[in-house]
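Exercise 7. Predict the joint structure of the components listed below.
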Amino acid sequence: EAQVTQNPRYLITVTGKKLTVTCSQNMNHEYMSWYRQDPGLGLRQIYYSMNVEVTDKGDVPEGYKVSRKEKRNFPLILESPSPNQTSLYFCASSLLGQGFYEQYFGPGTRLTVT
Amino acid sequence: AQTVTQSQPEMSVQEAETVTLSCTYDTSESNYYLFWYKQPPSRQMILVIRQEAYKQQNATENRFSVNFQKAAKSFSLKISDSQLGDTAMYFCAFGGGATNKLIFGTGTLLAVQP
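Solution:
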């Protein structure tokens, strides 16, 4: 089954404790992206990647890191989480090429930082 | 920069009735795509319908259709014969440009009443 998976689905942590949210897709997509969803703000892009070893900042990259060592994986790293990073996080992937291909979303990760 | 505006934070409709969700956007791009995503209580992001800006014909998917007014930069979603399972948050999104980024509106929470 074609899908994007994220782990963990729920995470409660404390300020300053490094964490990683994993994202994996099995569709051989070139493009992967992370979004955060906050009430009243919709979804905003954090980072994206157009290929292996190619990553770039989205609209709200502060406090986050990413890596793309393999085509299928795109982990999101919070090296020193803070309460303002409490949010719902989505990973998405798509093909790249002429036009704009549908982005497939993972199930979301609910993160709470206390 | 592109922006997407959803001016209706919440809406309610009776089962079997028709409801229209509004969305306006701003862009200087000539080639772009517009989307409506549904987010039920499970939080999964589900693509409902997409519209290519170069196509004049409005997209339809079963009970879902759009009214795309390119000159007015308007992209509304019509849901016919509303069902209880349509209860969800609906996001309008813009796709285009070199970064393949989706830009989301703030969402409309739709409640279908029995």
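Discussion. The mean pLDDT of chain B is 95.
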